[in-house]
Write a structure and sequence with these properties.
Shape: elongated
Number of strands: 14
Number of helices: 13
Largest sheet: 10 strands, mixed
Radius of gyration: 21 Å
Distance between the termini: 32 Å
CATH class of the largest domain: Alpha Beta
Helix content: 25-40%
CATH architecture of the largest domain: Alpha-Beta Barrel
Number of domains: 2
CATH superfamily of the largest domain: Aldolase class I
Structural class: alpha/beta
Length: 358
């Protein structure tokens, strides 16, 4: 039996191999009369070589490949569109198996190549400063949909890091996210180090604890305000899982080893950039081995509540944290001219067009 997550192609009716573990591939092998070791061959073709078709699995007999092709396909789908920023960032629009669309962003930086992937179509979290939050929730991505953003990326060979910071809340689709990171880090998969993968969250209690217990990947918390009441006006998730409780949970884990903890902090002018906010951040985080990343606010269409922070004020904010023992950096903004920067991803219009086309 295949897992309930296994994707089915809406057009061909075939099952998708991308996203299956090596154990599940053994079941596939048995279905078509192949020996168990064929699972290792298939996983190598899928996750290490990244082939686009079963016909490319040349160490499997032609007859067996034909039997596989009758029931299965690899499942890669190329991007539908791309936009190039003046700073080298590229935003891709990818199709999903359910006929929707999501965005992923490739960010080159010297020898480093980072891909920002999506895990949902839209998002339930409704953060007031985020275009994806304004889109609303439109669906979960299956493992194959998430992996497709990676394996169908034209710059795949240049990738050094993957961040789950695109559309959606990873802890709200945790089964798919954990399966994806397993396949990226497993010996039979892409065999990446977990240190090359960061998963971001606003903080969902049940999902966060499970992630901490089951995943060795880096964790990034979307913080944005150290005061609970103020944070709740920006991020509704604060009401169901207060920051204080989340920090208490994080204190139970060791952050001095290979797994890294960071806090993302979008700086809004006149909202969360005062010395009072900086002092509270120091109070909350000084006992945690962590880093704070300050992010410049990118104004949303029609936005009047939030304002960009003064660049000098961001430097002063950073210096205050650093001088009081909290490591802090200002993250360079990338891809703003193509709406690819932090908080700007949104496919509501594209998905409406897709639905109307159907």
């Amino acid at each position: 039996m295949m897992t309930s997550d296994q994707s089915l192609d809406n057009v061909s009716g075939k099952r998708i191999l991308l996203g299956l573990t090596q154990e599940e591939l053994r079941t596939v092998a048995a279905e078509v009369g192949l020996p168990a070791f064929a699972a290792k061959q298939m996983s190598s073709w899928l996750y290490q070589k990244g082939v686009a078709s079963i016909d490319e699995m040349t160490n499997i007999s032609l007859a067996a490949r034909q039997r596989l092709t009758e029931r299965y396909e690899v499942g890669l789908m190329p991007p539908l569109a791309e936009q190039h920023s003046s700073d080298g960032t590229v935003k891709y629009l990818f199709p999903t198996r359910k006929g929707q669309r999501v965005e992923a962003v490739f960010i080159p930086d010297d020898e480093r190549g980072t891909l920002c992937v999506s895990c949902q179509v839209g998002c339930k979290m409704a953060c007031s400063f985020c275009m994806t939050g304004r889109q609303g929730f439109q669906g979960q991505l299956a493992v194959a949909d998430i992996l497709n953003q990676i394996y169908s990326l034209p710059e795949r060979e240049r990738l050094t890091n993957i961040v789950f910071m695109g559309q959606g809340e990873p802890m709200d689709n945790l089964d798919s996210v954990l399966r994806t990171t397993e396949l990226l880090t497993a010996d039979y998969g892409w065999a990446w180090s977990p240190k090359r993968i960061t998963v971001s969250t606003v903080g969902l209690k049940k999902g966060l604890k499970r992630f901490l217990d089951e995943s060795p990947c880096h964790l990034a918390i979307s913080l944005h305000n150290p005061f609970s009441e103020e944070r709740a006006t920006m991020m509704p998730a604060e009401r169901s899982y207060p920051l204080a409780e989340m920090l208490e949970l994080l204190q139970e884990y060791d952050w001095t080893g290979q797994r890294r903890l960071s806090f993302e902090y979008i700086v809004f002018g006149g909202t969360n950039d005062s010395e009072r906010h900086a002092r509270e951040l120091v109070r909350l985080l000084s006992d945690l081995e962590c880093r704070v990343n300050l992010i410049r606010w990118h104004v949303l269409p029609g936005e009047t509540k939030f304002h960009e922070a003064d660049p000098q004020r961001m430097i002063e904010f950073r210096d205050y944290l650093t001088n009081h023992g909290v490591r802090c950096t200002i993250r360079a903004s990338r891809g703003q001219d193509i709406d690819a920067a932090c908080g700007l991803l949104n496919t509501k219009t594209q998905n409406k067009i897709q639905v109307n086309d159907e």
